[in-house]
Amino acid sequence: MQHIYGMTEEALKGYFIQIGEKPFRARQIISWLYRQKVNDFSAMTDIKKDLKPRLEADFCFDELECVTKNVSSDGTIKFLFKLADDNLIETVLMSQDYGYSVCVTSEVGCNMGCAFCASGLKKKQRNLETYEMVLQILMVEKLTNVKVTHVVVMGIGEPFDNYDNVLDFLRIINHPLGLEIGQRHLTVSTCGLVPKIYEFADFPLQVNLAISLHAPNDELRSKLMPINKVYNIGELFTALRVYYAKTKRRLTIEYILINEVNDNPKEAYELANLLRGLNAYVNLIPYNEVLENPFKRSLRERQRAFYDILKKQNISVTLRKEQGSDIAAACGQLRSKYLK
Ligand code: SAH
Fold this sequence. Notes:
The protein is an alpha/beta fold and about 350 residues long.
C-alpha cells in the first residue's frame, strides 16, 4: 500500500504503465486529488469502474492528525501534527501581504547540531516521506480554508539531508494540474551541504535557494554551525558561485542576529566583503531566544547598525519582521515545549 500524496506524476505514470493502463491516468488522478480535493477513488468519475478496486488496494489517502493549532496575535498559525508512527512535526502558516506562506518541516529532528537552534535538541529520527510534506500543505489548507501561495522548506530538519523526498515534494506541489504553487514561490533553505548545492543547480524547477550563513568567517561559523567543519565558507561560496552561474537565480543569505556574538560591525563588514560580486540578498533575522541555550537576541540598535553597514556597502538587505513568537512559532520551540 502506497501513500497517494507521495506520488509524483512520473511515479504515477510508471505505476499505470506497469499495471497495463494508460499513463494519462496520472494527470487525471492529480487533478482529482489537488484540484477537486477528492480523497476517494469511487468519486473520480473519469476513472473506469473496473480499475477502482485495484487503485483502492494499492493506495491510501491517510492524512496527518492535527494535535494542536495555535493562532498568534499577528495571524500566524502554528500546527502540531502527529505522524502515523506518533512522531510530532510542526508546520507554520504565515499571512503575508503577497499571500499565504507555509513553513514546512522536512525531517523528524535534525542532525546538523547548530548551537543556537532548538530543533537539533532532538536528533534526527528519520526523514519525512514525501507524502508527509505534501500533507502539511493540504492539511493547512483544509484546516484554515486558505490557498497556500508560497512554501518555504525552513521548518525542522535539513532539506538537503532528505534531498530526494524534498525534490519530489516540490514537484508535486508545483504541478500545474495540482496545487500549482509557482516555482518562484518555493524556497529551500540549507545550512550548506555543499555536494547537494551542486546537484540542486541542475534541478529543473526554478526554486529559490536560501543559505543559512549566520557568520562571515570560519572561526565563528564553526562554533555556531558544526557543518562548517565539513564544508567551510570557501567551499560553500565556490558552490554558490557555480550554482548562480548555472541557474542565474539570486541567492538568499539568511543571517540571524545574536547579541554580541555575530552582530558586531566587524562581522557586518566581513559579510559585505564575502558577498561582493555575488547576486545575493541578505535576510537579517533577529534571533528568537530559546530556553535551551544562552544566546540573546541582538539589541534593536545593534540590528539597525548591522543593517546600515550592509546597506552602505551596497548589499541588498532586509531586516525581517518577526512573526508568531508569542506562540513559539519560531524554529522548533512548540514541539520542544510539547515534548516536555
Ligand atoms: N536546516 C535548514 C532549514 C531549517 S532552519 C537550514 O539550516 O537552513 C530554518 C532557519 O531558521 C535557519 O536559517 C536556521 O538557522 C534558523 N534558526 C534556527 N533557530 C533559530 C532561532 N532560534 N532564531 C532564529 N532563527 C533560527
